[in-house]
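Changelog entry

Holo records now carry the ligand SMILES as an explicit input line rather than a separate metadata file. Below, a converted record for coenzyme A, shown in the new format.
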Amino acid sequence: MTPPDTGLRAGHAHLWWAVPERFTDPTELARYRSALTDEERRKTDRFRFARDRQLCLIARVLVRTTLSRYDQVRASQWRFQANRYGRPAIETPTSSLRFNLSHTSGLVVCLVSRDREVGVDVEPRSRTGAWLDLASRFFSAPEAAALRQVNATDRPRRFLEYWTLKEAYIKARGMGLAIPLGDFWFDLPPRHPDDVRIRFAPALDDNPARWQFGVRQLGEHHLVATAVEADAGAPVTITPHEAVGPLL
Ligand SMILES: CC(C)(COP(=O)(O)OP(=O)(O)OC[C@H]1O[C@@H](n2cnc3c(N)ncnc32)[C@H](O)[C@@H]1OP(=O)(O)O)[C@@H](O)C(=O)NCCC(=O)NCCS
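Structure line, unchanged by the conversion:
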């Protein structure tokens, strides 16, 4: 078992990420499978393509081994329970750790903190789409209008920034798409979104000061947005770490 990392102090969150394709040792992969519950193994095996089974396996193991970096619990011992919207959280053993998982082709990320709600979303930068149409369907009116002002070259990235931030927020709330995506919106500064502000329609009972957001590129190909419950004093520090094998 990896020794607990005592570095997850108050005011910090860690963003662990893994590239599923980098885990190729069959003995190691068999060990990872053995750390899963029967149900998790069944979920993994249901995928038709090997790359999807690999992604699912690495996602389960990343969550388990990430949590075991901070609490004296074996990776195989964690048990999770999903809320009514499908969000998994630690059921046993009791822990103050909070986590959220996101995965897409080529990357798995797990954001972890203590006593603080977190949400994370990753998307590939290569994603293509009819950005303005998608924005008018899924974003709030101010976001769709702001996106129309962005030049065509910068638009795909800006679209993904909004998209991942919106996902990170609804995931931090643990409610997924039960939160109408038009009931909140982000103000993004023109260039690099260091200072991301959220605003809520009155229908959505939440306080902008409760949350801190960030969006960053991870590797060459992915964009990751994070939502963490804010501290009144200093900003929460979010540190990325690559999880490399062997994880167990
Ligand atoms: C399920 C949802 C919460 C995230 O879906 P997603 O972006 O496809 O998937 P991600 O990889 O980011 O996250 C999946 C993980 O989030 C976790 N999760 C599931 N439901 C969740 C919820 N309600 N809240 C927080 N986390 C949740 C799970 O760990 C899940 O992984 P697992 O099933 O392998 O255990 C939900 O927001 C959704 O269905 N989104 C659809 C996409 C969309 O229309 N987006 C519009 C953006 S503007």
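Spot-checked after migration. The mean pLDDT is 94. The pocket of coenzyme A is lined by residues 59, 85-88, 100-103, 121, 138, 163, 166-167, 170-171, 174-177, 181 (CB under 6 Å).
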